[in-house]
Amino acid sequence: MLTEVRDAEDREHARDAAKAFDAEFRPKWPKAADKLACDLKVLLAFYDFPAEHWLHLKTSNSIESTFSTVWLRNKVTKGPGSRAAGLAMALKLIEAAEDCWRYVNGAHLVALVRAGATFQKGVLVESEVKEGQEGEVAA
Questions:
Q1: In 15-135, where do the E strands start and end?
Q2: CB atoms within 10 A of CB 53
Q3: CA-CA distance, 14 to 8, in Å (whole number)?
Q4: Which of 123, 126, 127, 125 is nearest to 47 (CA)?
Q5: Interval 94-128: pLDDT, tens
Q6: Which residues are within 8 A (CB) of 97 and not within 5 positions of it... i.e. 6 or more apart?
Q7: Structural domain tally of the chain?
Q8: Stretches in the chain below the pLDDT threshold 70
Q9: Choosing a second label site near 90 at 20 to 30 A (CA), which of 24, 31, 68, 107?
């Protein structure tokens, strides 16, 4: 049911899935239900961005998989020996992992996000250009 919250088509459906989770599991696991209810706004913050970016924002796999190679190598070699050697090893392993990274879906929308554009249900919301912003990207 938590997957249904994360993979809902929009914020409203995610909230409905969270309510269903709460109704189902609160009697047995009240702390888990409280945690979900308390952090729901933060957990669903990715819906404020373009729909193309949601896949990247709702997972931490790219970070975890990159650092898991560093952790594994450190464990196998029983430590890097020195701080400088450890940093050099981490840098080289991360650079190697970088070759496997994929590009962000909707990369052209990153500039709009940085400019403060507003997205609803993953779609850009057009609004009037504010005074003094004629040359800038407007939300």
A1: 119-120, 123-124
A2: 20
A3: 5
A4: 123
A5: 888 887 777 778 888 888 888 888 888 787 887 64
A6: 65, 66, 69
A7: 2
A8: 60-62, 127-139
A9: 107
